[in-house]
Design brief:
The protein is of the alpha/beta class. About 30% of the residues lie in helices and about 20% in strands. The structure holds (3S,4R)-3-hydroxy-2-oxopiperidin-4-yl beta-D-xylopyranoside.
Length: about 475
């Protein structure tokens, strides 16, 4: 009996091998992986979750999130009210807590979101017209500049279309700045971070027959035809009784993909978490090559913005039936090549591009002028300025192995207790962090004492040199000349 079985297996194996010669181009089924991220990775996709900074102290939460997901969206921390609480004053503390947790655990980050009618800071809610248009542009530049090169995809514009049967735009202060606000946002975004994929993200655009879906589809088609930069569409996929999953979801995904954009399921949750519906959603994504990843909107039911709907994959520390359905669906997918992955690093990123011992001028990109000690003064407390670049010693800085910037026998010094806007000075060199400067890959130079960015207060001769909250704009970017 045992022998017969062996023979049968051997014959079967030969049969498979022979047949295999004719079908070598067919992709092989994925071998089983035991986490959502790893199983999605087998077909070149990611599986992500929203993360809330306030829960990063909960070890059950972080251990599930770390084990299962390989793409992270900040649930609220990169929204406009979080990153620009006052006009022109950026704050990335909460955003960086999520960002740094993600990249320190080897995960990529989706940026969410830059232009949206909701969760605006009150100053923006009260702004309109050309002033608001400029504020939107400045916001995109500030946030994308800060994270330049570090974000996989940005939801540049969120939820700009109206619910119901109109298929048109939602009324909002942004919409009232002019119908072109969305394309202006995308063009601004492309220039601010050419490496990031730029997405339009919305809810209730999952059902192909709905007017809102068609409205967004027509906008994306128009953008592609006219060369407005757009790389992806985010389908939020918040499914509930008012907006249920429909099997035409796959048509929606493939129709958007056929326009030449990636499609991502960005905020998936399903009221009641039916295992069948979760598997259907995953299979719809797997059926379309350009559906590049799925993100669920939270880790455990208790973390959900709709916790009463128990819409997620974990309950407390336990995997729900929907989890197993999702994992099995991902593991059944045909394998494709691996996703090209970036290796993100925490913010700010010290880059060892500047060798100790080299000397250079610090030329501000926005002003085109160099850091300068007025009249070659070198007394302690001399406040620095920018001036037309020249080759005299009062603009030459030597970068020491201790990360000091030395000129005229003194060191560039961010005064103790400096806040945003404090002028930098010359002081006797000592080893402390307020005389240590880090050159970042995005062109900014940060003080090791306070992570503030070296900045200029204007562009003309004698404009001040300060430390300021980093926003990555040209008045905070420096070339070594
Ligand atoms: C939600 C968050 O989950 C909540 O914590 C917050 O109070 C409101 O916003 N569409 C989006 C997300 O694009 O940003 C929203 O997130 C959910 C709907």
């Amino acid at each position: 009996m045992r022998l017969r079985l062996r023979n049968a297996l051997a014959v079967g194996a030969v049969g498979v091998l022979t047949a295999g010669l004719a079908v070598v181009v067919t992709s092989t089924p994925a071998s089983a992986a035991s986490t959502l991220g790893a199983s999605a990775q087998q077909s070149g996709r990611y599986f992500g979750t929203a993360i809330s900074a306030s829960r990063l102290g909960d070890s059950q939460y972080t251990s599930i999130a770390n084990a299962e997901f390989n793409m992270i969206t900040a649930e609220n921390e990169m929204k406009i009210n979080a990153t620009e609480p006052n006009r022109g004053q950026f704050n990335f503390q909460a955003a960086d807590r999520v960002y740094n947790w993600a990249v320190q655990n080897g995960k990529r980050v989706r940026g969410h979101t830059l232009a949206w009618h909701s969760q605006q800071p009150s100053w923006m809610e009260q702004t309109s017209g050309s002033s608001l248009r400029q504020a939107m542009i400045d916001h995109i530049n500030g946030v994308m500049g800060y994270y330049r090169g570090k974000i996989y995809a940005w939801d540049v514009v969120n939820e700009a279309f109206a619910d119901g049967n109109s298929g048109g735009r939602r009324d909002s202060n942004l919409q009232r700045t002019g119908n072109d606000w969305i394309e202006v946002a995308f063009r601004t975004a492309r220039a601010a971070d050419p490496a990031a994929k730029l997405c339009y993200n919305d809810y209730n655009i999952d059902n192909w027959t709905w007017a809102k879906t068609q409205g967004v589809y027509n906008m994306v088609r128009d953008f592609k035809q006219r060369g407005v930069p757009i790389d992806c569409v985010g389908l939020q996929a918040h499914f509930n009784s008012g907006s249920p999953y429909n099997s035409n979801f796959r048509t929606t995904i493939s129709s958007f993909a056929a326009l030449g954009v990636d499609v991502q399921i960005t905020e998936l949750d399903i009221q009641g978490a039916s295992a069948t519906t979760y598997a259907a959603v995953v299979n719809d994504c797997l059926a379309v090559a350009r559906c590049t990843g799925i993100t669920v909107w939270g880790v455990r039911d208790q973390d959900s913005w709709r916790s009463g709907d128990t819409p997620l994959l974990f309950s407390g520390g336990n995997k729900k039936p929907a989890y197993t359905a999702v994992l099995n669906a991902l593991n059944a997918a045909p394998t494709t090549g691996p996703t090209p992955t970036v290796t993100p690093s925490p913010n700010p990123t010290p880059t060892p591009t500047v060798s100790p011992g080299t000397s250079f001028r610090l030329r501000n990109e926005g002003a085109g002028r160099c850091v300068d000690s007025p009249n070659s003064a070198s007394a302690n407390g001399t406040l620095l300025q920018i001036y037309d670049c020249h080759t005299n010693p009062n603009q030459m800085f030597a970068y020491s192995s201790g990360r000091q910037l030395q000129t005229l026998g003194k060191c560039l010094d961010s005064p103790t207790g400096a806040g945003s806007g404090t002028r930098v000075q010359l002081w006797d060199c000592h080893g402390n962090s307020n005389q240590q400067w880090v050159f970042n890959s995005n062109g900014t130079v940060t003080s090791a004492a306070n992570n503030l960015c070296l900045a200029v207060g204007g562009t003309g001769n004698s404009s001040t040199v300060t430390v300021a909250s980093c926003n990555g704009s040209a008045n905070q970017r420096w070339t070594r000349a």
